[in-house]
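We emphasize that the prediction below concerns an isolated chain of 383 residues; any contacts that depend on oligomerization or on bound cofactors are therefore not represented. The input was used exactly as deposited, without trimming of termini.
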Amino acid sequence: MTVETAAGPAGSAPPEPELVQLLTPEGQRVPHDRYDALIADVGPHDIREMYRDLVLARRIDSEAVALQRQGELGLWPSLLGQEAAQVGSARALRAHDHVFPTYREHGVALCRGVDPLRLLALFRGVDQGTWDTVGSRFHLYTIVIGAQTLHATGYAMGVQRDGAIGTGDPDRDTAVVAYFGDGATSQGDVNEAFIWASVTNAPVVFFCQNNQWAISEPLERQTRVPLYKRAGGFGFPGVRVDGNDVLACLAVSREALQRARDGEGPTLVEAFTYRMGAHTTSDDPTRYRLDAELEHWKLKDPIERVKAYMVRNDIADQAFFDDLTAQADELAERLRTQCRELPDPEPTSIFDHVYVEPTPQLVAQRDEMARYLDSFADQEVAR
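Result of the prediction step, given as a token string:
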């Protein structure tokens, strides 16, 4: 289904942009001439597994928010409302595709096999992000807004030069995906990445989760045209997808990723979604947005629409939902317990992962810090 509003009389608002949607907020499956074939292999088992990912991603998020409120985490950026965009796109990835996230892709991390405890450790301040980036192909979280798009483009150019695209071998051809938000599209890094990806025909998918708010700045303060249309100015295709529709996100991502693997260059995917929580736990969204807006988007909840679809089509029974609730409770309990048990790192460990091989200057800095810390012990002995 493609939703489009016809243009009105002169002086009226411009027409709404096309929106790829396969599952309505009420959980009804709607046909689409272009994208149905891309999810033809998705059966009841796949639907249940995607629903599981959605539910667990939200539970990880809610537990992390609670832990931060209890003083156990320094900060937490919530993904509430964006689960379908993340799970749908992540489910389209192959094992050897590489992901460059921002700091909010907890659902993608889950789908890539990253233990959510490692994410909590990062925001607890006891870990610099030491999950297995090689095995998971899920890069470190990037706090600098938009910087990961350049990292992704550079990596994609390397993949291209290694001949790992366009071979027709599904075990070799590789795609790269960069996640970012609508606010990041105003950053120079993102636009520079678009240029490099375009002129080099790099195998990268730019996946923008347009959650309507760049902290307190609404979308209309970011752009005068729909974000996905910006791709045309750089010379590659863009598409807007219902970011609360996990099936549509899966289909659109599969197409974009396959274009990259086939050597057809970059794509910009704008997942039109909504941040139902705060930007981070240090933010108060009630200061800049209306409750009515949040209530409107709650009716489009990505998890509830999949559940409605499953119930409507007898894809899952109550036993399935009860078992999943038990799994979520068990995961939450593990995260609560193990997060509090995370040990503080040795202060000098901050130097361990700066370079593959430490430089003489880095060793000197580490040794100087060690001597400084030892001086406190010497003073204690002297007393």
